[in-house]
Amino acid sequence: GAVVSQHPSWVICKSGTSVKIECRSLDFQATTMFWYRQFPKQSLMLMATSNEGSKATYEQGVEKDKFLINHASLTLSTLTVTSAHPEDSSFYICSAKGDGPWGYTFGSGTRLTVV
Amino acid sequence: QKEVEQNSGPLSVPEGAIASLNCTYSDRGSQSFFWYRQYSGKSPELIMFIYSNGDKEDGRFTAQLNKASQYVSLLIRDSQPSDSATYLCAVITSGTYKYIFGTGTRLKVLA
User: Fold this and answer.
1) Which of residues 38-97 of B touch A (CB under 8 A)?
2) CA distance B58 to A104
3) Nearest-CA neighbor of B63 among B49, B44, B82, B83?
């Protein structure tokens, strides 16, 4: 159990456009999902905590108006990178916790390249 | 002080040897600890979790937790070249219940 599906797996977009990344828990309900960003050869950095039915909690230094998070249902959270710039190019990963003891399950990640 | 610290490596061990990966954390109230393996360009995958002091074994992997020293480790016995990856330690912090990762240790198992 505890499968998290993330789409798209990779995306290339032009500078100034917006990109939406979806994270779905397939076989469990996730009241809380997390969004991470990982630059090459660096660890995962928590960007925000997404709570179903309420506003996301952003980490210090993460622009909430740039990285829009919506958690409209117990199985879906979306991250929209607005007005993307080349420096936003990164690997974005979501995770969610089910009810079991297995910790947090990660999506497969989205490689974003802004050109 | 970083919340979760790991030596970035690379840690090189010969095939068949024991690889020892270490992690320290700053939040004394943390209760849950996880080890993930991440191959380049891929998402992390859970290897083990540990909540209680002592050792927890699963196949070739053993997680060790010492809450008094705020230290958690992962031992990989009979290391294989396929074990070559970055190993991430993760801790759920008390209070805010955030899931915080260390910077990861890159392991190289030499054939």
Assistant:
1) 41-46, 49, 88, 90
2) 18
3) B49
